[in-house]
Write a structure and sequence with these properties.
20% strand, 2 domains, alpha+beta
């Protein structure tokens, strides 16, 4: 919903700014730029209180961040990898799905289930959330001359 609101309020005036500039219509570009600025300010000023009043709050964001940090810290300790992408899906108050993607030049495939289990245990210990962890390995080959 939020993405749709942003797209509806920002994309059309931004497109008209570009069209105005392309056709040499400075008046059209300036007016559209004004509308774009007003929409941007209003989205930032009014969206945070609306989201907070609707119950979104900041706690899910803190939990999401904590789960990401725990997963990435565990991967760095176990697999010594730096190219980590972590996706967290909070399903309800105490359950989450976690997808960890690694780009690596080499990791033992037998270590992947152990890594997933270790990440899951660390998340449970640090946050109390029951979870489902999946680890995807994207092999990277490097060549040099």
């Amino acid at each position: 919903m939020i993405g749709t609101e942003i797209a509806i309020s920002l994309i059309p005036p931004a497109a008209v700014v570009g069209i105005g500039l392309a056709y040499g219509r400075a008046d059209m570009a300036i007016q559209s730029l004004g509308l774009l600025f007003i929409n941007l300010v209003c989205l930032n000023v009014f969206s945070i209180p609306v989201l907070y009043l609707r119950g979104v709050g900041l706690e899910p964001l803190r939990i999401d961040k904590k789960i990401r940090e725990v997963a990435e810290k565990t991967v760095r300790e176990v697999a010594k990898e730096d190219e980590i992408l972590t996706e967290v899906n909070l399903r309800c108050n105490e359950k989450t799905d976690v997808l960890v993607r690694l780009q690596t030049t080499g990791i033992n495939n037998d270590a992947v289930p152990l890594l997933a289990r270790r990440i899951s245990e660390e998340i449970k210990k640090e946050t109390g959330f029951s979870n489902s962890v999946k680890v995807m390995i994207n092999p990277v080959s490097t060549y040099s001359s």
